[in-house]
Amino acid sequence: MDNVLADFDSEFGKRWKERHPEQSDFDLSQRKYFELEDNFPDEEKEEAIALMSEEGFFLSFPPVQDAIESCKEMVREGLDVRICSAPLPFQWESCVKEKYLWVRRYLGEDFLQRLMIVRDKTLVKGTVLIDDKPQVQGMVKHPEWKHVVFTQPYNLHRQGVIRMNRWSEWRQVLIPLLLQ
């Protein structure tokens, strides 16, 4: 959900710059590591985690471009769309609640039944998992779904994977996988 449907990085960047106007060149568009706090020097990691832990943080994310309309189109066209999201391990209390509120706000009440909050996505059944994590690992070594990497700067090092660069590509990327 984060950085696939909901623009986590833009909200984090906005809040970080408000706290650190001296870092006017702060930019997450080239971040190297999936775990956001790993992109910071040791002396700033705790502050980054604290920012992500603030009440209201997850609810404040704007949607990723074309994500909302694309999800609704997929459902209208008969696809069984599920939103699979992992809560932050250090801040799950309001994170989980806010993910539900975010889905209701942007996708509507009907989509709440499609939201699955899980720490281990390999346990989820499905055909395709669209995720920004470079490699989704967990208890199941070979999940039944195909991982479609939603392109972000921190996953560009992954070669030879199925990618979706933007939501406007969903038909070209997903339909062939669903027909296999």
Automatic annotation (TrEMBL):
GO biological process: one example: pyrimidine deoxyribonucleotide catabolic process
GO MF annotations, alphabetized: 5'-nucleotidase activity
InterPro entries named among the record's database cross-references: 5'(3')-deoxyribonucleotidase, HAD-like_sf, HAD_sf
Active-site residues, as the UniProt record annotates them: D2
Domain of life according to the entry: Eukaryota
Transmembrane segments: none
Name of one Pfam family that matches: NT5C
This protein's name: Putative 5'(3')-deoxyribonucleotidase
